[in-house]
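Why do we bother with holo predictions? Because pocket geometry can differ from the apo form. Keep that in mind while you read this record for zinc ion.
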Amino acid sequence: MSDNCLFCKIAHGEIPSRKVYEDDEVFAFHDINPVAPVHLMIIPKRHLASLMETDDSHAELLGKMLTLAPKLAREQGLENGFRTVINSGKGGGQEVFHLHIHIIGGGNIPPMVKRS
Ligand code: AMP
Ligand code: ZN
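The structure, written out:
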């Protein structure tokens, strides 16, 4: 656990969240400021700042987080699909530096990249 990391504190129950899933390695909860009717976050319990800090040794953990996404999405009623977003580093627009997968869905999800 990293001191002063918001998502470490959420994963360890020190800061409240609307939890939807927990096991020994992974924690999932509702985003506090949703951009769509369903907006979940999947995080590792162990501190990892971003995808940029991962290597082959994290493959199993990352696979577990990704395969959890459709299960949690279905539980939230997203039968038609959902968007996953992982912002990595300042160059990727990341704001909270503890790796997280956004799961976004419901309502109208526009194309992510607008082309003129
Ligand atoms: P990112 O820009 O990818 O780093 O995403 C950070 C996300 O964390 C944003 O969508 C925030 O709304 C969300 N967030 C920040 N603080 C909290 C919190 N206390 N509980 C739940 N989600 C949060
Ligand atoms: Zn952390």
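Residues 9 and 15 are 6 Å apart (CA to CA).
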